[in-house]
Amino acid sequence: MLERLRKLICVGLVTATIASAFGTNAFTASNTVGSSMAGAGSGAISGYAVTNVAYTTTAGNITAVAFNLDGPAGTVKVQLSSAGTEYDCGGADPVSFRATCSTAEPVAGADTLTVVASE
Fold first, then answer.
1. How far is CA 87 from CA 24, 27, 64, 100, 115, in A?
2. Do 92 and 117 touch, CB atoms closer than 8 A?
3. Is residue 89 a contact partner of residue 99, using CB atoms and an 8 Å limit?
């Protein structure tokens, strides 16, 4: 009787192991992953030349700054003081490459003109 119980348990374990293997295979075989691309690259980055800078002031504040870039830029930002606000100018004009930025910087606090531009 004990021998028959051992065989029954052994057959049960083998059957459970096989069923588990097929069940796992069925779940993993149904996964699909679409194709994708990945990679890294590099390219030269050159700076813009900023020319023809003009400030507009009203009541002790710089209310606008305008300047020309030497190429197209879709994003332009300026900062007029080293610890001050960075102003979003939008983009430069696509023909003249002139950017005009509305600002609200006190003239007394303006200590730099930092221009950040990108295509």
1. 57, 54, 10, 11, 10
2. yes
3. yes
Which token pair is 38? 């990945």
Judged by DSSP in three states, 15 sits in: helix
Widest pairwise Cα distance in the chain = 106
Tens digits of per-residue pLDDT, 35-79? 877 788 888 888 899 999 999 999 999 999 999 999 999 999 999
Asked if residue 104 belongs to a domain, the reply is yes
Structure tokens belonging to residue 40? 């890294």
User: Interior CA angle at 24 toward 21 and 30, to 5°?
Assistant: 135
Structural domain of 113: 50-118
Q: Is residue 12 part of a domain?
A: no
Overall pTM > 0.70: no
